[in-house]
Protein backbone atom coordinates (compact mmCIF):
# COMPACT_ATOMS: atom_id res chain seq x y z
CA UNK A 1 0.00 0.00 0.00
CA UNK A 2 1.41 3.37 -0.97
CA UNK A 3 1.90 6.33 1.33
CA UNK A 4 -1.01 8.19 -0.30
CA UNK A 5 -3.28 5.14 -0.02
CA UNK A 6 -2.61 5.05 3.71
CA UNK A 7 -3.47 8.73 4.11
CA UNK A 8 -6.37 9.01 1.68
CA UNK A 9 -7.72 5.46 1.59
CA UNK A 10 -6.69 4.66 -1.98
CA UNK A 11 -7.94 1.10 -1.98
CA UNK A 12 -11.46 0.22 -0.90
CA UNK A 13 -10.43 -2.28 1.77
CA UNK A 14 -12.15 -1.23 4.98
CA UNK A 15 -15.85 -0.99 4.27
CA UNK A 16 -16.12 -4.01 1.97
CA UNK A 17 -14.73 -6.33 4.65
CA UNK A 18 -15.95 -4.46 7.68
CA UNK A 19 -18.56 -6.37 9.67
CA UNK A 20 -20.08 -3.13 10.98
CA UNK A 21 -22.23 -2.76 7.88
CA UNK A 22 -25.40 -4.13 6.40
CA UNK A 23 -25.40 -3.26 2.72
CA UNK A 24 -28.19 -1.49 0.86
CA UNK A 25 -28.06 -2.75 -2.71
CA UNK A 26 -31.72 -2.82 -3.69
CA UNK A 27 -35.03 -1.09 -3.00
CA UNK A 28 -35.96 -4.15 -0.92
CA UNK A 29 -32.84 -3.68 1.26
CA UNK A 30 -33.73 0.00 1.70
CA UNK A 31 -37.34 -0.82 2.57
CA UNK A 32 -36.20 -3.35 5.20
CA UNK A 33 -33.76 -0.84 6.70
CA UNK A 34 -36.47 1.80 7.03
CA UNK A 35 -38.88 -0.77 8.50
CA UNK A 36 -36.18 -1.77 11.00
CA UNK A 37 -36.00 1.87 12.15
CA UNK A 38 -39.42 1.40 13.76
CA UNK A 39 -37.93 -1.11 16.23
CA UNK A 40 -34.43 0.32 16.58
CA UNK A 41 -32.57 3.48 15.58
CA UNK A 42 -30.50 2.92 12.42
CA UNK A 43 -27.88 4.88 10.50
CA UNK A 44 -27.23 4.92 6.76
CA UNK A 45 -23.78 5.96 5.54
CA UNK A 46 -23.87 7.17 1.93
CA UNK A 47 -20.39 6.82 0.47
CA UNK A 48 -18.78 7.76 -2.84
CA UNK A 49 -16.20 5.04 -3.42
CA UNK A 50 -14.17 7.22 -5.80
CA UNK A 51 -13.79 10.23 -3.49
CA UNK A 52 -10.78 10.35 -1.15
CA UNK A 53 -12.61 12.72 1.21
CA UNK A 54 -15.47 10.25 1.51
CA UNK A 55 -13.00 7.40 2.09
CA UNK A 56 -11.25 9.35 4.84
CA UNK A 57 -14.54 10.23 6.56
CA UNK A 58 -15.69 6.60 6.28
CA UNK A 59 -12.46 5.27 7.78
CA UNK A 60 -12.65 7.75 10.68
CA UNK A 61 -16.31 6.90 11.33
CA UNK A 62 -15.57 3.16 11.31
CA UNK A 63 -12.77 3.66 13.84
CA UNK A 64 -15.11 5.66 16.06
CA UNK A 65 -17.75 2.92 15.88
CA UNK A 66 -15.27 0.12 16.53
CA UNK A 67 -14.12 1.94 19.68
CA UNK A 68 -17.65 2.78 20.81
CA UNK A 69 -19.72 0.95 23.40
CA UNK A 70 -22.83 1.51 21.30
CA UNK A 71 -23.57 -0.99 18.55
CA UNK A 72 -26.32 0.50 16.39
CA UNK A 73 -27.50 -1.04 13.14
CA UNK A 74 -25.37 0.55 10.43
CA UNK A 75 -26.25 0.46 6.75
CA UNK A 76 -23.86 1.24 3.90
CA UNK A 77 -24.85 2.65 0.52
CA UNK A 78 -22.31 2.77 -2.33
CA UNK A 79 -23.39 5.87 -4.22
CA UNK A 80 -21.60 5.02 -7.44
CA UNK A 81 -23.25 1.63 -7.71
CA UNK A 82 -26.67 2.69 -6.37
CA UNK A 83 -27.28 6.38 -7.05
CA UNK A 84 -30.93 5.54 -7.74
CA UNK A 85 -31.30 4.40 -4.13
CA UNK A 86 -29.72 7.61 -2.86
CA UNK A 87 -32.21 9.56 -4.96
CA UNK A 88 -35.04 7.47 -3.49
CA UNK A 89 -33.82 8.22 0.04
CA UNK A 90 -33.72 11.94 -0.75
CA UNK A 91 -37.20 11.85 -2.24
CA UNK A 92 -38.88 9.57 0.31
CA UNK A 93 -37.26 11.07 3.42
CA UNK A 94 -37.07 14.68 2.27
CA UNK A 95 -33.30 14.91 2.69
CA UNK A 96 -31.00 16.64 0.22
CA UNK A 97 -28.35 14.30 -1.23
CA UNK A 98 -24.78 14.81 -0.04
CA UNK A 99 -21.67 12.67 -0.07
CA UNK A 100 -20.42 11.44 2.23
CA UNK A 101 -23.55 11.58 4.34
CA UNK A 102 -24.78 9.94 7.52
CA UNK A 103 -28.51 9.71 8.14
CA UNK A 104 -29.82 8.57 11.51
CA UNK A 105 -33.36 7.25 11.18
CA UNK A 106 -35.91 6.44 13.86
CA UNK A 107 -39.54 5.47 13.22
CA UNK A 108 -39.06 6.06 9.50
CA UNK A 109 -37.94 9.66 10.02
CA UNK A 110 -34.49 11.20 9.71
CA UNK A 111 -33.62 12.54 13.17
CA UNK A 112 -30.02 13.48 12.38
CA UNK A 113 -28.23 14.27 9.14
CA UNK A 114 -24.59 15.22 8.59
CA UNK A 115 -22.05 15.29 5.83
CA UNK A 116 -18.29 15.50 5.44
CA UNK A 117 -16.36 16.43 8.60
CA UNK A 118 -19.59 16.72 10.63
CA UNK A 119 -20.17 12.95 10.50
CA UNK A 120 -19.63 11.42 13.91
CA UNK A 121 -20.66 8.45 16.00
CA UNK A 122 -22.08 10.98 18.46
CA UNK A 123 -25.01 11.54 16.04
CA UNK A 124 -26.35 8.07 16.78
CA UNK A 125 -26.57 8.40 20.58
Automatic annotation (TrEMBL):
Superkingdom of origin organism: Bacteria
Database matches in InterPro entries: BrxC
Protein name, per record: Bacillithiol system redox-active protein YtxJ
Protein species of origin: Chryseobacterium nepalense
